[in-house]
Predict the structure.
Amino acid sequence: MGNTAAFDATEFRRALGSFATGVTIITTRDMQGEPVGLTVNSFSSVSLNPPLVLWSLANNALSLPAFRNNGHWAVHVLASDQEDLSGRFARRGENKFAGLDFDEGEGGVPLLRGCMARFQCRTATLYEGGDHLIFIGEVLSFDRDDAAPLVFHGGGYAHATQRDPAHTSPKSAWLDGSFSGDFLGYLLGRSHFRFYAQIRPLLEQAGLSDEEFYVLSALTLKQRMAINDLDAGMAGVLDDGSRDALASLVARGLARSVPEGYELSDAGRDCALRLISAATAVESQVLERLGPGDAQVLKSLLNRLLTVIDPGAAALWDGAP
Amino acid sequence: MGNTAAFDATEFRRALGSFATGVTIITTRDMQGEPVGLTVNSFSSVSLNPPLVLWSLANNALSLPAFRNNGHWAVHVLASDQEDLSGRFARRGENKFAGLDFDEGEGGVPLLRGCMARFQCRTATLYEGGDHLIFIGEVLSFDRDDAAPLVFHGGGYAHATQRDPAHTSPKSAWLDGSFSGDFLGYLLGRSHFRFYAQIRPLLEQAGLSDEEFYVLSALTLKQRMAINDLDAGMAGVLDDGSRDALASLVARGLARSVPEGYELSDAGRDCALRLISAATAVESQVLERLGPGDAQVLKSLLNRLLTVIDPGAAALWDGAP
């Protein structure tokens, strides 16, 4: 443990950053009538009755005179898809509002759109707080939308995912040491098989085997593909390589051999695009039931898992022109 | 938008709850020398120089006299695995510290262990804040550990997952409408195949096919399994049911037919436990590389995905005695 005299500013910031926060943009209008705003994560609720919230602003902030002078300001709690907005208002700059649609709140305060919650406030008190000034605001009105939040933690942006209720995962009670339903291999396999089961009727309609579908899909990635690239892409998926499936696609007129390797025929391209469009519709339905926030996190974590267990997985896509 | 007069307390709380926060426990010692502590999410950093932090306490809180009287207190930023501790200190009760190991900080303040960060503070100022009192503390010392944070959002606990740097996912540039590497079916399939590729050498050593391994694993869940239960569990996994794999396990002396269905032989049980132990070790290595926080969220989201696409997936486990 250090003491005040020995505080290392970087270490202190890092320790403070271990407390996760949402992200807000706080806006007002300056004496020239120009909209003013900045990204703030020191927001906190204070009192329910009267309704009070607080945030802190550095004494040397350029926008301090505007917030001091205009007794009204608005707090915008940002949603997960507003990271760009957060970045825009975190930078010093003249034109933070350029091109943004906004409404006018009490005191002419600019109100941004698409936020999780907005609080229109009137300054109730200003308190000294070292190198910052603490604004205590009475909340005059507010609104709220259901959305996933933007989170800030450890110096970077984060997703928040609701936790499962605490539970012990189901496990065989008679044979100690057996698999639980929480084994990653089971979860990945089951998820894959069940998701694929919703795609398979589409393949049956098109008269394609799983293997033919994999290879057909891979052929949509580049205009022409060498057989070695195809085989590398299918490593771990098709044990015997792509040749059998390729031969069958060629025999059915969906693909053709060219000097550089293989390419889709017009019929193959139509077939692939029809299947992909239908499969993407299935995916959309699944992801909608999962919720957009969780869907984004799941994909992000599967991508991270792949970089851990399969550094070469991106090769098929990286090669795309 | 409402106004002050029309504030609905529940709606206001809900709007405030859209701002995500970390979770802290703040401790002190009362005039009788008893340790006191409560769960607080109104923590916020205020100033770097001097180092100040703040939090708010309800005017009618039982612990208010203790915090007012003892000018020292400590803020503990909780880690992801401290949800139970958060719950314990959020309830009114006499014995919050019962059975807890803690150290003594400045002013005799109890210091809890296993937290992400701890700030030992001396009250610098008390400010009125409506129905709450705002404690401004000068940070005397702090420490920090790397860990995943406990997050509170929308009235419940949440995980925080670091966001990927903003990027456009790789996509075929030549054929509009083709799959991207972000398609859930691709991510699930690829993750499954690659994870399974690390398990497969274990199966080869044991001389088992994939199908035999699936059925052998399923037979570890209950002491005896009816063929219909087995087939139901394998739906979407083994297209032709369990019979072929079962017959081969029986022929090799790893399983046997009993009046109620099938069960593992002693040799089958040994074989299964050896494989499961080795597979679990592979899983641990993968999850360690992913990081414990992300690993937990990934499993949680795959479970959530399964309840969405495969409500019957839990049936195999639910039936366990």
Q: What stands out?
A: Chain B has ten helices and 14 strands. Residues 4-159 of chain B form a domain with the Pnp Oxidase; Chain A fold (CATH 2.30.110.10). The longest strand of chain B covers residues 117-129.
